[in-house]
Amino acid sequence: MAANKNSAAKNGSSKNGKDGRRVIASNRRARHDYAILDTYETGVVLVGTEVKALREAKASLVDAFATIDDGEVWLQGLHIPEYGQGSWTNHTPRRKRKLLLHRKQIDSLMGKLRDGNTTLVPLSMYFSDGRVKVELALARGKQEHDKRQDLARRDAEREVARTLGRRVKGMH
């Protein structure tokens, strides 16, 4: 029994992270450039070689964004490189991929996107119980002064944590 657990961990098939999630790619820049208003967990329609490439944790969400066309949500700009051992059945790296959401969620998103200057940005892509999921965020773009304020606030919080840590250790 112990040998099976060790071999699963070596293969990378063990459950990493919280809730059985294994992160494939994350868009760290999105939290810097956008104020996140709401998040959604979506499924993705993929072909076989895309899933195999994602199992090797090869994906980039840098230029990715989502749109709603004819009542369907599409992820554009996501780069999944071709699978190394794929043949003529390989996928195109930057094709449009359909996202799976409930109809009520799509209708709600359409209303929110129509109302103001918001956009849909993918925050991360991960495996959840063997299925590829995308964490999609309804976001509003930050202006330069907002970004500076966030950086200053984060630096101040870090400095407070440092001084508290020094006091606890008795270093003043």
Automatic annotation (TrEMBL):
The record's section on InterPro entries has: SmpB, SsrA-bd_prot, SsrA-bd_prot_CS
PROSITE patterns listed in its UniProt record? SSRP
For the keyword Cytoplasm, the answer is yes
Q: Does the keyword RNA-binding apply?
A: yes
Biased composition of type Low complexity is found at: 1-15
Q: Which GO cellular component does the record give, naming just one?
A: cytosol
Q: Which keywords accompany this UniProt record? A: Cytoplasm, RNA-binding
Major localisation: cytoplasm
Locate the region Disordered: 1-23
For molecular function, the Gene Ontology terms on record are: RNA binding
* Biological processes, Gene Ontology terms: trans-translation; trans-translation-dependent protein tagging
Q: Could you tell me which SUPFAM superfamilies the record lists for this protein?
A: Small protein B (SmpB) (SSF74982)
Q: Signal peptide: which range, if any? A: none
Query: A Pfam family in this protein?
Result: SmpB
Which compartments is it annotated to reside in?
Cytoplasm
Please give the function described in this protein's UniProt entry.
Answer: Required for rescue of stalled ribosomes mediated by trans-translation. Binds to transfer-messenger RNA (tmRNA), required for stable association of tmRNA with ribosomes. tmRNA and SmpB together mimic tRNA shape, replacing the anticodon stem-loop with SmpB. tmRNA is encoded by the ssrA gene; the 2 termini fold to resemble tRNA(Ala) and it encodes a 'tag peptide', a short internal open reading frame. During trans-translation Ala-aminoacylated tmRNA acts like a tRNA, entering the A-site of stalled ribosomes, displacing the stalled mRNA.
By sequence similarity, the record places it as follows:
Belongs to the SmpB family.
Quote the protein name from its UniProt record. SsrA-binding protein
